[in-house]
Amino acid sequence: MVVASLSASEYYYMNNGKRVELREISPGVLNKRDMDGPVYFEDGNGNKVGVTRRILVSFYSLDNFEKYLKKYNLKKVKRYNFENLFLLEAGSVKEALSAANSLYEEPDVKFAHPDMVKEWRLR
Prior knowledge:
Number of strands: 7
Structural class: alpha+beta
Shape: globular
CATH architecture: 2-Layer Sandwich
CATH superfamily: Peptidase S8 propeptide/proteinase inhibitor I9
CATH class: Alpha Beta
Strand content: 35-45%
Number of helices: 2
Number of domains: 1
Distance between the termini: 46 Å
């Protein structure tokens, strides 16, 4: 007897302490390096979500900032003027999702969230 779990997704991000599962809409483009546009997924509510190579990260402390850039192979795009907030960039969308999820678990990190494009629906 073979039992398969379809509920656990390989792709996800953390939002307010909750795991948001993502399902690929366009398989095969996640590993493309230096791709400028977003890769589209469907979330658990059926919403279309575009994920870019960028990550928004807020740090409690910047003591290990450079270490994290090296550890997750990220580059700094922009520093905002409040709350140690940075826009960082990975080499691919898959790397951005992975880095955001790993950074989320780091003790110096307040939050880490992939930069996303969401489709708007009029009611």
